[in-house]
Structure formats: C-alpha cells, structure tokens
Design a protein that fits this description.
Rossmann fold; 266 residues; five-stranded mixed β-sheet; five-stranded parallel β-sheet
Length: 266
Amino acid sequence: MKQIFTDQIGTQHTFENTPKRIISLVPSQTELLYDLGLEDAIVGITKFCVHPIHFKGIKTIVGGTKSVKIAKIKALQPEIIICNKEENTLEIVQELSRICPVWVTDIVSIDDNLQMIHDFGQLFNKRTEAQKWIGKINFAYQDFKQFIKDKPVKKAAYFIWANPYMVAGNHTFINEMLQLNHFENIYKSKEGRYPEIELKKIRLEGDPDYVFLSSEPFPFNDEHAFEIGRFTHHAKTVFVDGEMFSWYGSRLVRAFEYFKIVHKKF
C-alpha cells in the first residue's frame, strides 16, 4: 500500500514499503536514526558522523556534508537519503534525487526537532521509539526551563570559525539554544545565518558578557581566545562543546544537562 509523507521543506515522497536502506548525510541525524533502532538499515554515512563511534568501522563513508561521492552512493542502492537544508547543498539534494527519494529536514527550533523525530517515527515505522525520545526531550526541556527561569539575560557572541571570524546569527539552531540559555546573541540582527565579523567592532556591535568558542567546526585555541578577548570590554571567554549547541535530534536530552554544567561554572 502506497504511503505519502511530506518532509520539512514541503516535498512529498511516496513509498510502497518502509525504506530499508538509509544513507544519512547529517551527523546529528545519523545519531538519531541509531537511537531510533535503525542501525541495521543505515548503509552509508559521512566522514563527520562520529556518533555512534563504531559506525566509522562498519558503515560506508560516502564523503562529507557538502561534497559526496555519487558513485559510492549509487553502489549502496539506497531507498532513501536523509539530508538537511543547512548542512547539505541544494545541488547535492537535486543530484541525489535522481538516485532515490531525498528527505530534507529544516531545523531551527525545538518544535522543528520534535517534528523531525515524529516524521522519522512514521517514515521508518519506529513510532514507539520516536514517542519515547519526544517524551525524554520534552521532560528534559521542561526541567531546564525551571532551572533557567530566574537567571538573568546576558549578552553573548558564539564563534564558529576563525580566519575569517564567523559567528552564529539569527535563524539558526545555535541561536535558539542561546536564547533558551538566557544569552542574547549580539549578532542576531546581522545579515546572514553565519555572518563574518570584524573583531575590532565587537564592542560597537554589542560588547558581549560572554564569548563562546565552539569545539566545531573550527578548532579554537587559547591564542584565538586571547585575540578575541583583546577587543572586548570585559567578556569572559568560554570554550564550549559545539555538538551540544548545534546538534539536534536525540542529542538534545544530553544538551540540557550540559547546559546546566556550563551555567554552574559562571
């Protein structure tokens, strides 16, 4: 019996049967698929899919998130390829659509994340597992909102790259996580999701209380922290786990606990 599903960018997909051979081109979504009990169905992943760790040894690596090996993907005979609007390019999605259906997620908010988990539950016939994870996330979310409710709002800048320096802007999952943590993103009004910025203007553009240096995708070190710090008035520089701020899916449960630890350091 044919079933019709609609992904998060509005594309309709029709399946005769539940897709059994999955390629995931998004690290956080690979982790979610594993947590939904789909390990055996996953046939291909990216070189950045580091969780669960044993996948690197048993799954076929088909490239990165922005560059994939089409011949390798074809050879795996996938029945569905999982992408993301931000992580993967439109060109990749269009090219892969000639091989099999390409499901594209679009995650900016926690509600978007919960919708993705629900969708995967329906799509892969893992409804019970999906509901369990939605329940876990909602419980942790409500608990964290209680934890954070009386904490004052502080200004922050979240750096993702150096040379040139780039930060998380508005309409990003990172910005959503900052807001949830009572951090006002000083670059939320700057044009672009990940704008390039000039360090010498950091005071004029918001003068943050905190500067967060993400562990991914760029390996920031003490020299970067010192350089950025010189241009702020009194900001505290904090190295943070980028996976906790930018990975959606099932990772969110652990992220709420991590955020508590971060706040207790201040």
